[in-house]
Design a protein that fits this description.
The structure holds 2 protein chains of 2 kinds. By secondary structure, chain A is α+β, with helices and mostly antiparallel strands. Chain A has 6 helices and 3 strands, in the order H-H-E-E-E-H-H-H-H. Helix content of chain B is 38%, strand content 16%. In chain B, helix 2 runs antiparallel to helix 10, helix 3 packs across helix 10 and helix 11 (315-334) runs parallel beside helix 14 (405-423). Chain B has helices at residues 21-26, 53-66, 76-96, 110-123, 145-153, 171-177, 200-209, 229-232, 257-262, 297-310, 315-334, 361-369, 383-388, 405-423; strands spanning 34-35, 38-39, 41-42, 104-107, 132-136, 157-161, 182-188, 214-217, 236-240, 251-255, 273-276, 281-283, 339-342, 351-356, 373-374, 376-378, 394-398. The chains are: A alpha+beta, B alpha/beta.
């Protein structure tokens, strides 16, 4: 499935949830289900410092696809991370680069990305793009 | 410039207003608004307080009818604006019982007040290589970082008074830290993260017995108890207007004349000089020496009005109402399984920092926000406190005199909901 299709599917799933409570319950559930990030990967280098919560993220290229693993000490942030992993992990860097996270706004949780939240999530999105750009450039260089 | 506005000092009504919290809430329009379709429960008063109508109106009025630059013009509006601004200074002087209005320096806020002192004390050689400054482990970053910046320029050392598990200063350790190298003590009156009200009078007396001047960071104290700088005998006292129901961007540095006279200007510019030539510039007297440039005139006027508004109340009524909220909320919160309060000093302000086992403060804050409850989560700009208790963050509820028991009930209910959501 393409990134845009996954985004649309998530938007649909969230549209069915009426209250904030239901939305957050789902986000918490997604956080619990997020595949565990191995402790060895939770290094200082992989840490995205947030004022409110901490986020760790690592990405690598496997068979041309970018695999993202991440974690947070706050469960809601972890749930939001799970959404980002669902959307972006397992796709080619080029596709990631051309797919902005529009679904966050449609779901109504884009305020978690506002600078006042300082939860590391906005920084994680930037980091995903940075990894994608880097992997893309490396791939282009190796082809030449 | 001589201050010639004594005649405008309005005599306050001696009869205090009856303390009726529902009537008080009518004065604060924001308290009527809805958040996420629920009535706002504003428990983030330690971060900033809400503003009464009289303060909001004073700012609108100023820009609508009274705006002009102050201290400079002889035209009608300039005199009106100057009078309003200097009347505000007088109100502040009376509010903290300073000896004179010229001891009241208007700043951007607490942070600027401390930076001003760190900067000018260093240039006045009040702090030299090898000197020591005593602060405590419960300081806000605003009372740590300015001194660290100074330490980088001069070989000055910061000495830190430790705190107990309950969140109280170790007074014996304080006494032991004082030595012949100690040149300054800078201490928070009331902790924004723990709620602890420190024994500032005792701290000041101990420092003075060794001839050491004391700065009190009063940011969290002024809205909750009567401050009398002469009775405290502190040498400097700093606070922010926005935590006192006034506007943001305005604050106060009180200093004893003998010290303020010794300090050089902080910033150079207009309104702080007597004569300027390219060879030599002479500076104006207090308070203008420290107030370069056009100040936050509307902010100053608004702060004066906030103080006038507060003066209609008996501070004892405010303190006892807030204390009732503190005790009620503490009791209800301690019934919540897994909840732990950080900061259990015997003498506390209406601030409750807490954690819940297995639930991150970010998660607590996010969920109760959907119920319209505003609290603060994070390290509260007090990372050394977090390190002391081995935490990365806490959640914090802080009350003002317009909060109610019913609001505490809504907050407690929201906390139970958090627990339910994260345990299922």
């Amino acid at each position: 499935m393409k990134i845009i299709d996954i985004q649309n599917q998530l938007v649909k799933e969230f549209e069915e949830l009426e209250s904030w409570e239901d939305k957050y319950t789902k986000i918490i559930k997604l956080g619990r289900e997020l595949p565990q990030m191995s402790e060895e990967l939770k290094t200082e280098k992989n840490k995205i410092e947030g004022c409110q919560s901490q986020v760790w993220m690592h990405a690598e290229l496997k068979d041309g696809k970018m695999i993202i693993v991440a974690d947070s000490d706050a469960m809601i942030v972890k749930g939001l991370i799970a959404l980002l992993v669902k959307v972006y992990s397992g796709h080619e860097p080029g596709e990631i680069m051309s797919s902005p996270p529009e679904f966050l706004q449609k779901i109504g949780i884009d305020r978690h990305l506002s600078p006042t939240r300082k939860n590391g999530l906005g920084a994680m999105l930037k980091q995903i793009q940075l990894y994608a750009v880097t992997f893309n450039a490396l791939a282009a260089a190796s082809e030449q | 410039m001589e201050l010639t506005y004594e005649h405008t000092a309005v005599t306050e009504e001696k009869r205090f207003r009856e303390f009726d919290v529902e009537k008080i809430r009518e004065d604060f329009p924001i308290l009527k608004r809805m958040v996420n379709d629920k009535p706002l429960v504003y428990f983030d008063n330690a971060a900033t307080t809400q503003k009464p109508n009289v303060v909001i109106d004073s700012i609108t009025n100023y820009y609508t009818y009274e705006n002009a630059n102050i201290h400079r013009g002889l035209h009608f509006l300039s005199e009106v604006a100057t009078e309003l601004y200097e009347t505000a200074r007088l109100k502040i002087k009376e509010f903290i019982n300073a000896m004179s209005a010229s001891e009241v320096i208007l700043t951007k806020g607490t942070t600027e007040g401390i930076n001003l002192l760190a900067n000018t004390m260093c240039r006045a050689d009040m702090l030299k290589d090898g000197d020591e400054i005593i602060v405590s482990q419960m300081e806000h970053h605003a009372n740590i970082v300015p001194w660290q910046l100074l330490c980088e320029r001069k070989k000055v050392k910061l000495r830190v008074i430790p705190i107990s598990d309950e969140g109280e200063l170790d007074m014996e350790a304080y006494k032991n830290l004082i030595n012949e190298k100690t040149k300054l003590v800078s201490i928070v009156h009331t902790s924004n993260a723990l709620g602890t009200i420190n024994p500032v009078k005792e701290i000041i007396d101990i420092a003075h017995s060794a001839g050491i001047p004391v700065i009190i960071d009063g940011a969290q104290a002024v809205a909750h108890q009567k401050i009398d700088v002469q009775e405290l005998d502190c040498d400097f006292f700093v606070f922010s207007g926005h935590k006192l129901f006034g506007p943001t961007g305005i604050g106060v540095l009180y200093g004893k004349t003998e010290y303020l006279d010794k300090l050089p200007p902080y910033q150079g510019g207009g309104d702080m000089i007597r004569t300027v030539t390219f060879e030599k510039t002479t500076f104006d007297d207090l308070p203008n020496k420290f107030e370069a440039g056009t100040p936050n005139i509307a902010g100053g006027i608004g702060l004066g009005v906030a103080i006038k508004y507060l003066n209609t109340f008996n501070f004892a009524d405010i303190s006892s109402h807030e204390h009732m909220l503190l005790e009620y909320a503490t009791e209800k919160m301690l019934e919540i399984p897994g909840l732990r309060i950080i900061g259990n000093a015997a003498i506390k302000s209406s601030v409750i920092s807490f954690i819940i086992d297995g639930i991150h403060p970010y998660d607590i804050g996010t969920i109760i926000d959907t119920d319209g409850v505003a609290i603060r989560t994070g390290h509260h700009c007090t990372q050394p406190i977090m390190q002391r208790y081995n935490l990365t963050a806490t959640a914090r509820a802080s009350f003002a005199f317009y909060n109610t028991k019913d609001e505490v009930d809504i907050f407690i209910k929201a906390l139970y909901k958090v627990i339910k959501m994260f345990s299922s």
